[in-house]
Amino acid sequence: MPEMGLEVIDRTVNDTNNWLNQISTDLGCDKKHAYHVLRGGLHTLRDRMTVEEAAHLSAQLPHLIRGIYYENWRPADAPQKLRDREEYLTIMVENVGDRETEDDPEEAARAVFRVLKANVDPNELRHVGALLPDDVTELYQAA
């Protein structure tokens, strides 16, 4: 057991930092911006899924990221309808809440999809992709 703290806490902090570092490297941004992109991307995705599927995806996330994922969630409002890729990206920019993401929302979305692909079971991600409009699924698959 590590000298400081509980192993489960140390592991989730380490895993969370790894996810943020992946996004930060991918986008060439600082960790603060990477955090906002991850949070906004996860919320955009979560709100488009059924409650059951959102719970399945959350089980694949590190504990700390799972808390970020569920922040401000209203399951009674899920799933929110989504027409197309443009609407998905517009909502993601709103969820990220900064001007930097407005410049290239597709690249921010791809960064979130890439970190998910690198860290989440592919079968779970196939289920998630099936819930999204085809052009959003294409964005995910191209990541």
Could you characterize what this model shows?
The chain has 143 residues and is mostly helical. The protein has one domain: Uncharacterized conserved protein DUF2267 (Globin-like), CATH 1.10.490.110. Helix content is 72%, strand content 0%. The chain is built from nine helices and no strands. α2 (31-46) crosses α7. The termini are far apart. The model has no long low-confidence stretch (mean pLDDT 93).
* Uncertain spans: none
Helix content: over 70%
CATH class: Mainly Alpha
- Please state the CA-atom Rg, rounded to the nearest Å: 15 Å
**CATH architecture tag:** Orthogonal Bundle
What is the secondary structure topology, with strand pairs?
Elements: H1 7-27, H2 31-46, H3 51-58, H4 63-70, H5 85-96, H6 99-103, H7 105-119, H8 122-130, H9 134-142
Helix pairs in contact: 1-2, 1-7, 2-4, 2-5, 2-7, 3-8, 7-9
Q: In short, what is this structure?
A:
By secondary structure, the protein is mainly α. Pfam families: DUF2267.
